[in-house]
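Hi R.,

Here's the input for the flavin-adenine dinucleotide complex you asked about:
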Amino acid sequence: MIQTSKTCAIIGAGPSGLMAAETLAEKGYRVTVYDRMASPGRKFLLAGRGGLNLTHTDEPDAFMAHYREASAWLWPFIEAFSPDDVRDWCDGLGEDSFAGSSGRVFPKSFKASPLLRAWLRRLDALGVTFSARHHWQGWDSAGALRFRVADGQEILAKPDATLLALGGASWPKLGADGRWTSILKQSGIAVTPLQPANSGVLVEWSDLMKTRFAGTAIKRVVASCGQSQAKGEAIITEKGLEGGLIYSLGPDIRRQIEADGQALIHLDLRRDLPLPLLTERLSKPRGKMSVSTWLHKAAGLAPAAIALFREEHATGAKAPFDDPVEMAKLLKNLPLHLRGIAGLERAISTAGGLALSQLDDHLMLKNHPGVFVAGEMLDWEAPTGGYLLQACFSTGVAAANGMADWLGGPAL
Ligand SMILES: Cc1cc2nc3c(=O)[nH]c(=O)nc-3n(C[C@H](O)[C@H](O)[C@H](O)COP(=O)(O)OP(=O)(O)OC[C@H]3O[C@@H](n4cnc5c(N)ncnc54)[C@H](O)[C@@H]3O)c2cc1C
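And here is the predicted structure with flavin-adenine dinucleotide in place:
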């Protein structure tokens, strides 16, 4: 391969940084990836533990709706490196992708480790250098990148272009700790405060709920928060609820909690049973059945949903067992008071980040020519479902293409 003498530094060896490294190395640039951790892709590997959901087969409009306010801004990047491109890339690394019944796309092994191994081999073959245990500290007065290395020494690097792909601040022990926010703020760059996204919510459960039902899923529920609605399942935890249903409503819940210190959601525990039918079923005499057996038989509720319905403390509603009309209404619109959001330590992703207004159309910092930004450190958020990694990959490719343009086009 013909190489240019132009050098690119990528700080952050997560999916967005590695995707940018691949794009630039393929164009012939000399790429060094720096990371404060000892090995690349730590969060990517963790993401693979529960099944690495790379992207989604949604139609474009439905796909982009998941990014809410950031969708118009992200669209050109996702259009240019689309869900199909992510699948081709995955297939090309020997890990054929497949879509599950929900439309979520995974590599065939379901895990991240075989994919990451193949990816690192490809990057190595392309000549990408990896500098581990290099903790970026900012710039010196001459504009060189400052890194603290393992022995506490400081080293400097002066690449021709730089990509920051430092991630958000969830699971900080895996590398992305959000400390870049103070470095960038000191350089006059606007950053929206980092907050947990795709994170559990806190509910004041009874002891019964904590001890008997923590870990149990409540399935086929519709939840609403303000004007937003989501379908799916929630998992009961000792501290509250987590899972896709909750994550989809995350931004609405967060806004309510910011404003009022708490949030109120409503749950339809029998989303597939219309209200008149449910009322009719509940109107049949209970006889000698216990309330739980009756709710199970007449309303088809699972034990965890019944326990939730009876959580007077959390729902603030005393179940009107003798009134079938009111019972049915409550089962289809059960209030649930949320006391807060679980912290960043265990959140799947981060909301907030580098303000999009600070970037030009090629993801370059307007007040730092030659410095580009990609991935989760940017101020967008999305629920789980493959939308997070897709945006990381797409912005990684876009920033790399922006860097190549800025450096004077493809090096080959
Ligand atoms: C449990 C879990 C499951 C997930 N599952 C999925 C999933 O199935 N699908 C999906 O789409 N998303 C999933 N995600 C989210 C996804 O992993 C992240 O959105 C993605 O990794 C973000 O990529 P990134 O490259 O922007 O940042 P990161 O992957 O966080 O990488 C940032 C890198 O920057 C390095 N770094 C940070 N600061 C410095 C510094 N000062 N100096 C040097 N290096 C630094 C870090 O060490 C890190 O390696 C999951 C996340 C978690 C926690």
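One thing worth noting: The chain is about 35% helix and 20% strand.

Cheers,
M.
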